[in-house]
Every structure is written in structure tokens, then in C-alpha cells.
Amino acid sequence: MAADPFHLAWFTPFKTPAWKSPWAADTPFTWLNGEYYMDMARSLERAGFDFMMFEDSTLVSDTYGGTTENDLKHGLHSPKGDPVPLLPMLAQVTEHMGFIATMSTSFYSPFILARVMATMDHLTKGRVGWNVVTSSEDLAGKNYGLDHLLQHDERYEMADEFISVVKALWDSWEPGAIVADRETGYLADHTKVHPIHHEGKYFKVRGPLNLPSGPQGHPVICQAGGSPKGRDFASRHANVLLSAPKGVDQMREYRDDIRARAVEHGRDADDVKVMYIVQPVLGETQADADEIARRRNELTQDQIETILGIMSITTEVDFKQFDLDAPLPDDVTTNGHQSGLEQFRKRTQGKTIREALMGQQTEAVELVGTPASVAAQMDEVMEAVGGDGFLIRGEPVRTHSRRYIDEIASGLAPELRKRGLIRSDYPESTFKANLAAF
Ligand SMILES: Cc1cc2nc3c(=O)[nH]c(=O)nc-3n(C[C@H](O)[C@H](O)[C@H](O)COP(=O)(O)O)c2cc1C
């Protein structure tokens, strides 16, 4: 029996594609002009993807070893472009797919964010979404006049107020407020545009927004909370959730938990789509794919510096200080990505850090094979989990390349479609409606 159709999306930073790949061409120098990403958007829409999601962060980190060397040497969190201006460019070269940008509730003001999102929703005719993050790094906070971020759980409380202000601003123009009536001489009807007079614990915003909301009303809300507080926040607000639980059982547990929480918040569980990160390894034969996977999983010095560098950035714990051949000390804590650190701690139980890195699996399930066999594996996994889809992530060191994108778009996606597992058209006019369609 086959799984029901599921959603397919791509997760990426607006960052240098895999510059060490022999298929990188000139992209290490030209990616910031957006053309690589425009090509990618065209390919993914042709393949039937639902959306592209751009993660983001705004720092050059010196946490690893007390220097920016590792971050810049490997291009980990920088250089990175702001995905917001990229989104309308991607919408211009496509017709249906959705595009999500990450913006932080710790650094934006609710008014600016509501205005930017509403404007982009108009510019793209209803095809944008906002990935709501609270950010994890004090170092980023220092770029915005903050010495420290709020404590982890309080960041979510602030995000909760932030999002309610943003929604109130999007609702501050009643439908039909623009009348453009030459007879009466009114462009907009002021009786349909209302201030919000918000005064809360963190924000004071008068409103109204100075433009009406776009075709989606409230653009798609995306979230990736993993901690209890984060899950609660996500299940209350998000239309789509990004997650990286490990293995089918954890995937199912995460989805069931999010859906139950959504119902507790008075929502329909089907209004929240849960997407799981995968990095399929594709070959013309199983043996080819196994060999590519073996090479990809080799623990080189570059890989160690990359994995521990990223852990250091997102937890603000200097992982260079630890002995690789000893376990992770018990007293390591973070005010950053708590669930990231917890997952790493679980992996290191009874192991040295090096051993844990060798078993490092950043994706929900490992998918290695021919396009047809990987499509079959995805079918089985979705059937076992219950839905809602996969978030493909090109492995950043080697496979974020036009070649890999084509392997997915021209190899895997057609196999998935043959099985009726992904969409073959976009019947609705907005991203949100297409997402809600199944
Ligand atoms: C797939 C995925 C994408 C994420 N994207 C971002 C991002 O772009 N920017 C960011 O600051 N955090 C990002 N995060 C971190 C989450 O927002 C969240 O902080 C993290 O999953 C830890 O959960 P917690 O905050 O509930 O502890 C992402 C997490 C996941 C799993």
C-alpha cells in the first residue's frame, strides 16, 4: 500500500553553494547575484516542489577556538545573504511554488516585519512565508545593541507576543478597504482601517499597518521548535514545521505530539504540516549510491571542523576546547539551540566525541539508492509516520550544486510522481492554499 501524497520542499541558506564540489563552476563568486537560486527555483518547480525555505542567521562567529577563522574558512554561517530580497526574485521566475524567509523575533520589530511580509505577499501574489525564529546566538544580538538574548523560554514568550502583534497589523485593514472610487474621491475607506493600540510586556505598537495585507492575509507561518516550549509555540502558530527527529519512531512521536498540541490550541491538526529533513544520496546503481554515501560520511578534518564549528555557533559553546577522544563533559549547557545540544549529548552517551561524530546523522532517515529505490523508501517512511512530507537539504560541503539539484529534480521527483506521492500541479493560487490542499 502506498502512502498518501506528501509535500516536498528544499531547505537551504542563501549561502555559498558547495564550493569544493567539482560542479561548483563560478558559484563561489557569483551566488550573491541570485542566479544560482533562480535556476534552483525553476528546477524545483518543474519537479513539483511545494516550497523553498531559507534559513538565516546574522553573525560572523568566533566561538570555535576564539577566532572567526573556522567560520570563514569553511563558510559555515558566513558569508550569508539576507533571503528577504531574494524571495520576490525567485517568485518572478516561477509561477506556483512558495518561498519562506527566516526572520528573528529577537531582532526585527513587529511593525517592520508585518510590513515587509505584507509587501512581499503582494509582490509574489501570495507565495511567501515567514520562518519564525527567536535566534540562538548572543553574538548576533550584539549586532543589534543587545548584550545577551533573553533566556531560551522567555524568547518564546516574547515571540508569542510578537506574532500576535504582527497578525493584528495584518488584520488592521478590513477586506475591501481600498475602494478607488472616482465618484466619491476615496482611494481607501478610513472607516475600514483600524489602529491596534497594542501595549504588551515587550512591544508597544499603535498601528494600523500602512498597507493592506496580501492575497494570503496571513502569509504562511513556518517554525522549527524542538524543545517543549518551542513545540508549544510552533503548534499554536505554524502552518508548517521543520524538524530533524531521528528515525521513524521519533518522527512519528514528533508529529503526533505537534498535532495533539495543535488540537489543544483549538486548531485542526491537519492545518499543521510536519516536514522532515533528508539528504538523499542518489546513484545510477545501489553500489554507486553506497560508495557516494561512504565518501560523504568519511570523517575528515574538514568535516570535524564543520560539524563542531556549526555546533559551536548555534550553542555558543566552544567545541574546540574538548578532547575529541573523550566523552562530552556533563556540565555543558546552552542558552542557544537546546534541542541541538540535547541530540548531540544523546549521541555521545557512552562514546567519545569523535565516535559520536562518525555516527553523525543530520537527517531524519538515511536515504541511499537509485531514484526509484529512494522513492520507494520515502513512500514506506511516510506510510509509517503518517505524513506530511520531506525537506531536502543539499549536504552543504559537497552537494549543494546544480548537479545535485538536478539529481533530485530530474531523477527522484519523477519517480515520486510516478507513484502518486507528490503533486503534479498547483490547483490553488496561493502557497498557503496549496499547502493546505493535502
Ligand atoms: C530545519 C530547521 C531549520 C532551522 N532554521 C533556523 C534558522 O534559519 N535560524 C535560526 O536562528 N534557527 C533555526 N532553527 C532553529 C530553530 O528555530 C530552533 O531554535 C531549534 O530547532 C531548537 O529548538 P528550540 O528553540 O525549541 O530549542 C532551525 C531548526 C531546524 C530543525
CATH superfamily: Luciferase-like domain
Number of helices: 16
Overall, the morphology is globular
The CATH class is: Alpha Beta
Low-confidence stretches: none
| Cα gyration radius (Å) | 22 Å
Which assembly state applies to the chains in this document? single chain
Strand order of the largest sheet: 1-2-3-4-9-10-11-14
**Order of SSEs, N→C?**
EHHEHHEHEHHEEEEEHEHEEHHHHEHEHH
Q: Which CATH-level-2 architecture?
A: Alpha-Beta Barrel
Average residue pLDDT: 94
Structural class: alpha/beta
Describe it:
This protein is of the alpha/beta class and 438 residues long. It has helices at 27-30, 35-47, 69-74, 83-92, 110-123, 138-141, 152-170, 228-237, 247-264, 286-296, 301-315, 338-348, 353-358, 371-385, 402-418, 431-436; strands spanning 7-13, 51-55, 98-104, 128-133, 178-181, 186-188, 198-199, 204-205, 220-223, 240-243, 273-278, 281-282, 368-369, 389-392. The protein has one domain: TIM Barrel (Alpha-Beta Barrel). Helix 2 (35-47) runs parallel beside helix 15 (402-418), helix 5 (110-123) packs across helix 7 (152-170) and helix 7 runs parallel beside helix 8 (228-237). The protein is globular and about 75 Å long. Flavin mononucleotide is lined by residues 11, 55-57, 102, 131, 133, 135-136, 224-227, 230, 242-244, 277, 337-340.
Topology:
Layout: E1 7-13, H1 27-30, H2 35-47, E2 51-55, H3 69-74, H4 83-92, E3 98-104, H5 110-123, E4 128-133, H6 138-141, H7 152-170, E5 178-181, E6 186-188, E7 198-199, E8 204-205, E9 220-223, H8 228-237, E10 240-243, H9 247-264, E11 273-278, E12 281-282, H10 286-296, H11 301-315, H12 338-348, H13 353-358, E13 368-369, H14 371-385, E14 389-392, H15 402-418, H16 431-436
Parallel strand pairs: 1-2, 1-14, 2-3, 3-4, 4-9, 9-10, 10-11, 11-14, 12-13
Antiparallel strand pairs: 5-6, 7-8
Helix pairs in contact: 2-15, 5-7, 7-8, 8-9, 14-15
This protein binds flavin mononucleotide.
